[in-house]
Amino acid sequence: MDEIVKKIAGLGLPGVLLVIAMTASGGVGGSYAIIAALVGLGGPFGIVGGIGVLSLMTLVGEALAGYGIETILKSIYAERSKTESVGFLLKEIKDLPLTEELKLKLKSVLGPEEISSDSKEAQSPKTIEITDE
To answer: What's the gap between Cα 96 and its chain centre?
Structure first.
């Protein structure tokens, strides 16, 4: 068992995901359980998608280990703020299962004025009428 654990640990997070997917598929071992696990992870893309998910999880796991979750999330939201609405991103950050401290740090990446405007209620625009006398 120690040898199996060492090999799975060598895979990192994808190995853990594979074990969980294999357990959820109803089999612990055998090629059918592995195929079912990869198909389950791959969704509509099947086995190829499952292998892709495992590869992606390896890259994400290495990045998290190297830089930390805070740095990665800040970079992601800074990049997304270039193409997406800041209001949408603020709502998304609010709904994330993160600590309030990390949420404030993520909001600060979007700009300090957005944090203060997030707490204010939206005011309706004023109508100004110009008349000639």
So the answer is: 10
Whole-angstrom CA distances from 121 to 62, 76, 85, 124 are 41, 27, 18, 10
Residues 53 and 103 in one domain: no
Residue 132's H or E segment, with its range, is: none
Contact 114, 107 (CB under 8 A): yes
What is the distance between the alpha carbons of residues 108 and 102, in angstroms, rounded to a whole number? 10
What lies within 8 Å, CB to CB, of 88 at 6+ separation is: none
In angstroms, the CA 96 to CA 107 distance is 12
- Final residue belonging to a domain, choices 67, 83, 99: 67
pTM for this model (two decimals): 0.52
Give the range of the structural domain holding residue 61, as residue numbers without chain letter.
1-67
The model's pLDDT over 111-122, given as tens digits with 9 standing for 90+, comes to 765 444 444 444
Q: What is the 3-state secondary structure (H, E, C) of 63-93?
A: HHHHHCHHHHHHHHHHHHCCCCCHHHHHHHH
**CA separation for the pair 3, 38 (Å, rounded):** 22
pLDDT at 11 over 70: no
Residue with tokens 């594979």: 18
